[in-house]
Amino acid sequence: MTVLGVIILLIIVAIGVAFFIAADRQTKIYEELEYEECQLNEAKLTEIKQKKAQYTKSYTAMTITATVLCIISAIPLLCGVFFTQLLNGSQLDQLMTGLVAGTLILIAIGVFFFVKSNIIMDSYNILLQTDDYTPKKKLGRKIMNKYATLYWLIAVLLYLGYSFITNDWERSWIIWPIAGILYGIIEKIISLCHNDIAAE
């Protein structure tokens, strides 16, 4: 069963990666809109504003649904506690496997709603150049994006170098949260130096 489970997992991962690659190819041509100013005529701007206003209710509903699903996703596992004294051995294992699957399904649905709703809303904001996509913030993103790859490659180098040299894999993971926080600090410094042109 373990081998079968691993095979199914690998098949699912392969399908997921294929979808990611296909989606990336399709959206690549629009990527520059996140960093460059959008020049639209008044008619198009008005049309997009109307569509965004119409989508707002759906966006709110999907965000609420996603939040609720992620919160209640822990309930199946918590319910399993009541059966720990009543079941044992393979029965308990099967129950916990099912409950974990239920939790992951709820999380997956919640994440789906989060991602879908935010992709659509961000598309409107990018075209209208509002919220996190004003011209100044787009410029800030462009600056950060220019050096982001180098920054994270250095982080990977430090992580692997320290871990292999010290063989301290149990604690070297701390490099990642530190790198993430430092990235945010650098982004904020750039924001202040360029009169708040970077994302808040």
Task: List key phrases describing it.
extended; single chain; 78% helix; disordered C terminus; mainly alpha; 7 helices; membrane; 200 residues
Task: Describe what this molecule looks like in 3D.
With 200 residues, the protein is mainly α. The protein has two domains: 95 residues; 67 residues, no CATH class. The chain has seven helices and no strands. The longest helix has 39 residues. The chain is extended and about 65 Å long. The C terminus is likely disordered.
Segments where pLDDT lies below 50 for 5+ residues?
Answer: 196-200
User: Rg, please?
Assistant: 23 Å
**Strand pairing plus helix content: what structural class?**
mainly alpha
Strand portion: under 5%
Number of DSSP-assigned strands: 0
Number of domains: 2
The tally of helices reads 7
From the N-terminal CA to the C-terminal CA, the straight-line distance is 48 Å
Q: What is the helical fraction, as a range of percent?
A: over 70%
Average residue-wise pLDDT: 83
H/E topology pattern? HHHHHHH
Assign an overall shape: extended
Protein name: Beta-carotene 15,15'-monooxygenase
Keywords: Membrane, Transmembrane, Transmembrane helix
Organism: Lactobacillus crispatus
Transmembrane segments: 6-23, 59-83, 95-115, 147-165, 171-190
